[in-house]
TrEMBL record:
PROSITE patterns: TPR, TPR_REGION. Keywords: Repeat, TPR repeat. This is Uncharacterized protein. It comes from the Eukaryota. It comes from Diversispora epigaea. TPR repeats lie at residues 9-42, 43-76, 77-110, 111-144, 165-198, 199-232, 233-266, 267-300. Pfam families: TPR_1, TPR_11, TPR_16, TPR_2, TPR_8.
Amino acid sequence: MSLLKLNKVSALRLRGEIYKKLGKYSKASMDFSKALEKEPNNVLALRSRGKTYQKLKKNKKALTDFNKLLELEPNNYLALRLRGETYLKLEKYNKALTDFNKVLEKEPNNALALRLRGETYQVLKKHNEALTDFNKLLELEPSNNRALKLRGETYLSTGKEPNNAYALTLRGVTYLKLGKHNEALADFNESLKLEPRIQYVLLFRGETYQKLEKYNEALTDFNNFLELEPNNNYALRLRGETYQKLKKHNEALTDFNKLLELEPNNYLALRSRGMFYLKLEKYKEALPDLDKLFELEPNHALLMLRGEINRILKKYNEALTDFNQALEKEPNDTFALIL
């Protein structure tokens, strides 16, 4: 009988693990709960249910499971780390710190615990301690992008002049968003001197050059970036726009076409290509893009524009339909009345 009971508990737990891997967290938690009804002290089921509750954002329930697990196994360092992570989500930062400290006393090179403790120090505004953890983490995992980002953010929080490429990049992006393009450019240039392999800096610098109307320099950066990531939608759009500014119309069209092959409903790409066709007075080619734009986001301005193109193409019935719709939405629109 006990063997049958054990088999059923094991089957429930294992099925729960499969549900968890498939992202079916509610079903997983039900199986773990059924297993725990039969074996309340099953540490594997407690841990798995706690992790599942984390996924479901039921952090208080997760905490209950990890607390019970640690009553049963006080030196279970995985459970300590999981409980610390749960405390962090519940904004109980000092308790989180206590758990991460215990884990790192036993496992000083535990990369995940280092990151989580660093994040906790960040929230507590203990920036020097956070930097120590992120620096150690990056010694263990030099290519850990998340750790690089966290360290860069911490440098910015301290107000210290950043001396690493990622921190400079973060500050440059902030300057770019604020419209401080010369300051952004200086940071991106310095970042690429320190670490030429951070390819996204090329994209950000290219965008900055574009804002500064330095289109040839922008084009060079976009070309270099797209050699590394040929299907990057954002870079293709920016390069297409840059080609437009340089009056390289065929190259611009190639980029917009490729972008729309990758992402047929990309609103900005459709708008860019549609406007490009209009500038070249290629009204037949512009019309399908405007139709698609209107499907994605109907608005009065598009109706007016499409009506005018239909009128130019002598599609008078279609033009009339567009202008009628435009006048229903904006009955006092002088432009529509004149047409």
